[in-house]
Amino acid sequence: KKKEERRKRKKKEEERIKMSEKRRKNKELRRTRNEIRRTKKNEGRRNKKREEQTRRKKKEERRTNKTKEKRRRNKEKEEQTREKKKEERRNKKKKEEQTRGKKKKERKKEQERRMKKKERRNKK
């Protein structure tokens, strides 16, 4: 009887130890699973943030590139208009020079005509 009781007690003790071991293992497993889940979530959040940042950076870059391009185009246009104006001024000067020369010649011719008329009149 005593032996049987001892055996029963021993068995109970072993069962208890086994159960506590099982609980401990389960607890450990749960902890690791939770840890894994947590790290995955955090990693996901980090990735999201990183992607968002890169998206923002790209957007900003595109915007700055657009403004730079606009500025460059405006500069080019201004340069072209400047050149055009210079060319127009040059052409205007040339034309004026030509007309001045023509007018001088015309005046000279007119003067010569007058002189000839005078001479003819004087001859008579």
TrEMBL record:
- Basic and acidic residues composition bias: residue spans: 29-54, 75-100
Annotated region described as Disordered, given as residue ranges: 1-124
* Name listed for the protein in its UniProt record: Uncharacterized protein
Q: Which domain of life is it from?
A: Eukaryota
Basic residues bias: start-end ranges: 1-11, 114-124
